[in-house]
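Key result, reporting period 2: structure in, sequence out.
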């Protein structure tokens, strides 16, 4: 039985992870951390805390973090140093903070797995985009999320653009060039991401997490689209990460490594 703690347990993702762990026969929820922990109902057996630092030693084998970007780096350093394995789904973490979390994980006794998207379809969409990237002149990414999302652009869209940029560079293609000469409204062309790939962020109530990757060449286009209609879409990937992390020494980035793609 793997003993699991959830950081950000009172949040939208955290509550889904709590329920998915409680439903899994080989996992048991033993810890829950959130400044708002008193706002949710949780089983008596679960050790609760408002901070990771206050969590007792050995409270769980694996901690799963779906909290906020500003706190995730500290959570990783603290938890890995104390021997917990850590699965991070929180997005918006700066490159510097991620590098220092990774460095902490390379030294500490616990293992670290970070994934910008735990939905299997989103992982496949990124892979398909990488395959298509060398064959098209240009590409832009549109990511669409619920109105309460705090960071933009989404971690998934950034990772998608990074992988497209790297596939284009390996094929000898130049960065994407924006042909726009004048802007009637500043920002109309979105943000310039890795390799000049434009990223556009949409925020609307009713959405969960969606991404479109639009490729274009003279006379043809290819659109790859993934939709998470419900947060349950992330749970298969989260459970896979929880079950795998003790066997993955050091740092694993992305769910692909667990899918063999
Ligand atoms: P949310 O705002 O609903 O939940 C965040 C929770 O974290 C809140 O309950 C908040 O009280 C808690 N929190 C804040 N500071 C904390 C701290 N220091 N320690 C512990 N808990 C703390 O947000 P959400 O929609 O659940 O999303 C959480 C994160 O997960 C976001 O970064 C989001 O982008 C990301 N996300 C990732 C995936 C993925 O597949 N990787 C999917 C969906 C969302």
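The corresponding designed sequence is given below.
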């Amino acid at each position: 039985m793997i003993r699991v703690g959830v950081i950000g347990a009172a949040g939208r993702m955290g509550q889904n992870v709590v329920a998915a762990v409680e439903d899994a026969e080989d996992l048991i929820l033993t810890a829950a951390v959130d400044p708002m922990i008193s706002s949710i109902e949780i089983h008596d057996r679960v050790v609760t805390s408002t901070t990771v630092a206050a969590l007792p030693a050995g409270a769980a084998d694996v901690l799963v973090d779906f909290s906020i970007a500003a706190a995730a780096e500290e959570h990783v350093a603290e938890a890995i140093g104390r021997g917990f394995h850590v699965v991070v789904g929180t997005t918006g973490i700066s490159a510097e903070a991620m590098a220092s979390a990774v460095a902490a994980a390379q030294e500490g006794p616990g293992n670290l797995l970070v994934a910008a998207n735990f939905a299997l379809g989103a992982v496949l969409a990124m892979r398909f985009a990488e395959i298509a990237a060398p064959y098209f002149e240009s590409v832009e990414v549109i990511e669409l999320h619920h109105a309460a999302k705090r960071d933009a652009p989404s971690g998934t869209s950034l990772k998608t653009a990074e992988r497209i940029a790297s596939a284009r560079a390996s094929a000898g293609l130049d960065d994407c060039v924006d042909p726009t000469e004048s802007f009637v409204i500043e920002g109309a062309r979105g943000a310039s991401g890795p390799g000049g790939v434009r990223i556009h962020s949409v925020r609307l109530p009713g959405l969960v997490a969606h991404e479109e990757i639009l490729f274009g060449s003279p006379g043809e286009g290819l659109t790859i689209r993934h939709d998470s209609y419900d947060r349950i879409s992330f749970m298969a990937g989260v459970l896979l990460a929880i079950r795998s992390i003790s066997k993955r020494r050091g740092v694993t980035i992305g769910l692909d490594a667990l899918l063999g793609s």
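The chain has a mean pLDDT of 94. The radius of gyration is 19 Å. This case is discussed further under Risks and Mitigation.
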